[in-house]
Here is the input.
Amino acid sequence: MSVDQSAGEQAGGLRERKKKVRREALHEAALRLVEQHGFDGTTVEQICEEVGVSPRTFFNYFPSKTAAALNLPEQIISPEAAARFRAASGELMPAICELLADSMSSGVERKRLKKLIADQPQLVAAFTQWMGALKAEFHVLVEERSGSPEVADAAILLALSSLRTLMHRPADDTRPDAVRLLETMDRLIAVRHVPMVPIDADQVVKPTDRPD
Here is the structure.
């Protein structure tokens, strides 16, 4: 590798890090302002003023204040995550958990976003639309690796059900999201084989006699 190539790669890496920092700053400002003033009481201009950028720069990172507040990525599944999934070997569901975890926010942020969506109904439609797009992108990748649209449907349904369950659990678990997601998935699957517990005859509720 030449000196020029090395310098170019370092410069490119620095630019990407700066972009990531600025994107996170815009998201944090949007989230904080919407928490404080409500969705309708927050403007793109206020978000920009908090970070010290122009609206033009803002729209280079997010298409709307909704996307900024929820930190909705322009690419739901990054090319790097998709490449890792395509190259993965072994069982399907652990690989899906890794892929899904790549698109998840941190535990603390999930708690804030969950409360934000509950407090600001205007955000529900955008989040639902994003989840639909996430499911569609996942389906393409999972069908490639499973070789069956039916298997892909079932796998994605299980993965998203596990994600919804995980979202309602405490955010103080510091293990990787993929590990927690797979554990949640295993717990849901295990319910399929749980036997019914016998009930004492005295506790059985008898149906009332029907009137003639």
Notes: The chain has two domains: 1-69, 75-192. The two ends are 93 Å apart (CA to CA). The CA atoms of residues 82 and 124 lie 27 Å apart.
